[in-house]
Design brief:
alpha+beta, Alpha-Beta Plaits, 5-stranded mixed beta sheet
Length: 93
């Protein structure tokens, strides 16, 4: 049986205008994860991701790093049950 989970993530800091969404899309695609990422009006970045537990945890680690021009101050993670709803990972506007 596979060990799949979901995660809802809020990333705070200098995370808009620095390529963060494209960075996370690349990470998710490399890890075979589904979900989405978007900018929030308050300057945060929000992501929803699903897949194998190990890959989701690695994705969360990358959220704490970000692309070179970003500065991540805080990452809030809520783990969720896997739904299988997301087949690909997209940037939502």
């Amino acid at each position: 049986m596979s060990d799949k989970i979901g995660a809802h993530i809020i990333i705070k800091g200098i995370v808009q205008g620095v390529g963060f969404r494209w960075f996370l899309r690349g990470v998710a695609q490399r890890l075979g994860l589904g979900g989405w990422v978007r900018n929030l009006p308050n300057g945060d970045v929000e992501a929803m991701v699903e897949g194998e537990r190990k890959s989701v945890m690695e994705f969360i680690d990358w959220c704490r790093v970000g692309p070179p021009s970003a500065r991540v101050d805080d990452v809030q993670v809520k783990t969720l049950p896997y739904t299988g709803k997301y087949k690909t990972f997209s940037i939502t506007f």
